[in-house]
Amino acid sequence: MPPPHKNIVGCKGKITAENSEVFQRQIRDLIPESHAQIATVTRRIIVDLSNVTHVDSTVLGALLRVWTAAQNKGCNLEIANLNPRVEKLVEITRLDIVFKRARVVAVAPQQQHCRLSANP
After folding, report:
1. CATH code matching the domain that covers 6-115, chosen among 3.40.50.720, 3.40.50.2000, 3.30.750.24, 3.40.50.300
2. Parallel/antiparallel/unpaired status of strands 44-55 and 76-80
């Protein structure tokens, strides 16, 4: 079996209730529409949060919804590079059990960027 095709989504700024729909849509656009498409499209989506300065609880719900959508289509969604505050929020809500952690150390050529707020 060939290695999974992956997309890295690098987010920047604040992710809150105000922009969580945009955040979800940008990730959902990478999820294959059917299991048949998995051979030719993304099998692994990594959400790089290294440049995210703030998230609220709404975003954790949004992440869980896109994780579920990805799982239902046979696609893996992982999170990477959480700042200490976001890491603590993920641990408190026990989502650290749900989300697989990816290790992203450099910007990949296939990385997509989503800027979600004007005030990082």
Report:
1. 3.30.750.24
2. parallel
In tens, the pLDDT along 88-109 reads: 988 999 988 998 888 765 555 4
* CA–CA separation, 63 and 56 (whole Å): 11
- How many angstroms from the chain centroid is the CA of residue 80? 8
What is the pTM assigned to this prediction?
0.77
**Full DSSP string of 44-78:** EEEEEEEEEEEE-HHHHHHHHHHHHHHHHTT-EEE
**Which single residue is written with the structure tokens 């990477």?**
80
